[in-house]
Amino acid sequence: MKSTRRPWSTRTRMAVAVAAGATLALTVPGVGHAAPSAPSAPSAPSAPSAADGVGVLAKLSHSQATGKFKAAGITWTSSGGCSDRNKPNCTSFDQINSATVDGVITLKSASGCAIRLTGGTETGHAGGTYSHWNGYKVDFGLSNCLNNYIQGTFTSIGGSKWKSGSGNIYYKEGNHWDVTYHNCGGCFAGQRATG
User: Fold this and answer.
1) Whose CA is closest to 96, among 49, 129, 56, 126?
2) Least enclosed by CB within 10 Å: which of 3, 11, 142, 161?
3) pLDDT of the chain, 195 residues: tens digit per residue
4) What angle separates helix 62-71 from helix 98-111, to the nearest 10 degrees?
5) Contact present, 152 and 161 (Cβ < 8 Å)
């Protein structure tokens, strides 16, 4: 008996691809849950943008950031025992970039090292575009595990600084690492790039 099933049309194949993409987006860490729309023409996949609410500039509250850190097994301390962004002796993650949080989580996953954060978006750090205040930087304590991983995996760029393959900068600043996250270190699209 011959099958009477017709081949899928281009429109049907596109709808299936969109549905599959939406399912994938729901499983990728840090990717929002936007409803898909049918594309007018096939296009190359792109990384989520700030307009999607998941890009480098997407801002998190202190509780959102600490929730993600806690779920990943990342700890934090505050010399003042507080989280007020406007006090320099607090450790706050209010208004931190989502990609910064995801970058720390990526580093922990890639390195297998414990991470104890000691600085976030609180006042009292140096200014500039890629600053703590603007959500790009965090500080974390030194450890043999992290020191060995960062210095052995990333590229030395001089001045006690190492650059990851994704472009994030790790600065060994006295008694802590001062890290600038320009991106999440490869956390999107199932990538597991380090740093």
Assistant:
1) 56
2) 3
3) 444 444 444 444 433 333 333 333 333 333 333 333 333 333 333 333 333 344 557 999 999 999 999 999 999 999 999 999 999 999 999 999 999 999 999 999 999 999 999 999 999 999 899 999 999 999 999 999 999 999 999 999 999 999 999 999 999 999 999 999 999 987 753 334 445
4) 10
5) no
